[in-house]
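Form P-L/3: holo structure prediction, ligand uridine-5'-diphosphate.
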Amino acid sequence: MKPVMVVVGTRPEIIKMAPVVRALRKSKIPSIFVHCGQHYDYNMSQQFIEELELPMPDYGYRLKAYSQGVQTARIIIHMEKLLKNTSPALVLVEGDTNGVLATTLAAVKLGIPVGHVEAGLRSFDLRMPEEHNRRLTDHMSTYLFAPTKTAENNLKKENVWGKIYITGNTVIDAVVQHLPMAERKSKILETVRFKKFALATAHRAENVDDFNVLKNFMEAFAEAPIPVVYPMHPRTKKRLQQNKIYAKIKKKGNLYILPPLGYLDFLVLMKKCEMIVTDSGGIQEEATAPPIRKPVLVIRLSTERPEAVKAGFATVVGVEKKQILNAMIKTLKQRRELPEKSPYGDGKAAEKIVQIIREEIGF
Ligand code: UD1
Ligand code: UDP
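OUTPUT (holo model):
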C-alpha cells in the first residue's frame, strides 16, 4: 500500500501537523514524515519534534537560503527527488509557507495528489508571501481541508478544482493535546515571574522588514502599561541587529525579550498572560482555544483569521505605536467576557482529516 506523506518545514507546521501525524499512526494508514528544511535552528524546528514526542522525520533536509525564490526552488528540487523515490498516494501540506508551495508544485508536476490542511484562508493583502503561497496551493490541491465555513466560501468563490471539506483547525487539537503536558513540564514561570504581563510575538515580513514598523513595535512594547514578554523570532532579531538597535532595545522599559520558546513554555505563557499582542497567524487561532481564551491584538493591517475577530477574541489594531498602546490600555480596562467555544473547531480536526483520507484514498 502506498503511504501518505506528511511534509513540514517550519515551527507552526510541526505544531499543526502533530495531531495529524498522531491520527495517521493511530489509524494504521502507512505514512512518511518529512521535514523540508525551511526552518533549521534547533529552537525553531527539532525542539518541537522532541517536545511534541513526534517520530524523527523519515527524511529531513537543512536549507539555508537568502531569498524566497532560492528557498522555494531548492525545496522543489529535493522534494521532487524524494517524491520520485517514495511514490506516496497523497502528500499532505499545512498552511502557507514557501515549503508548502514548493512541495505542492513538486507533487502536482509528478501527478501526485495534494491535501491542503488549513485551506481557504485569505488576507486579501498581496504584499504577503503567505497570500501568494496559500492561493496557489489551494488551486493545485486535490483535497482542501478548510478550517471554517468562511474558508470554504473563499475557496468556492475562487472556483478551486479540488474537493472541499470543513474540518476545523488542527491547532485547536494541538492546544488540547499538549496543554496538560505543558502545565506538568514547563518551568517558564520560574523565569517569567510577572503577576500581569502581555505576551507578544512579531515576525511577519511586511512588518519586521519595514524598519518604521519594527521601530513602532519595539517602542510600543517598551512603553506598554504592563510588562511585555516577547520570545523573539530569528528573523526579527536579525533585522534589529542589522539596524544596530538590538542591544539598546533589549533592556528598554517594559520590554522583556526571550529567545524563541518551546511549545510547552509558550502554551503556559498564553494561558497565564493578560493579553496577546501578535502578528502571528497560528497564535490568533490558539487564543480562541477553550483552555486558553485570551484577547488578541493583531498588529497588522489585515487578518486571514476573521473568525477570531467576529467571535470577539481578536482585534486588528494596525501597526502604529499609538494604536498598539491604546488597544493595550483598552483591553486591560475592558476585561471582556470571551466565548466558551472556538470558531476553529472542537479539537478533532486531525481525526476528521484522516477519516476523509481513508475514504477518499481507500485505505
Ligand atoms: C516563515 C513563513 C511564515 C511563517 C513563519 C513561521 C514563508 C514565506 N514564511 O517565515 O509564513 O509564519 O515561517 O515562523 O514561508 N531564520 C533563522 N533560523 C531558522 C529560520 C529562520 O535564523 O530556523 C531566519 C533567517 O535569517 C531567515 C529568516 O529567519 O532568512 C526568515 O526565515 P523564513 O523561513 O524565510 O521566513 P520566516 O520569517 O521564518
Ligand atoms: N510558538 C512557540 N514558541 C514561540 C512562539 C510561538 O511555540 O516562541 C508557537 C505558537 O504557539 C504557535 C506557532 O508557534 O503554535 C506560531 O508560529 P509562528 O507565529 O512562527 O507562525 P505563524 O502561525 O504566524 O505562521
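COMMENT: Residues 11-12, 15, 201, 203, 231, 260-261, 263, 266, 280-283, 286 surround uridine-5'-diphosphate (ligand 2) (CB under 6 Å).
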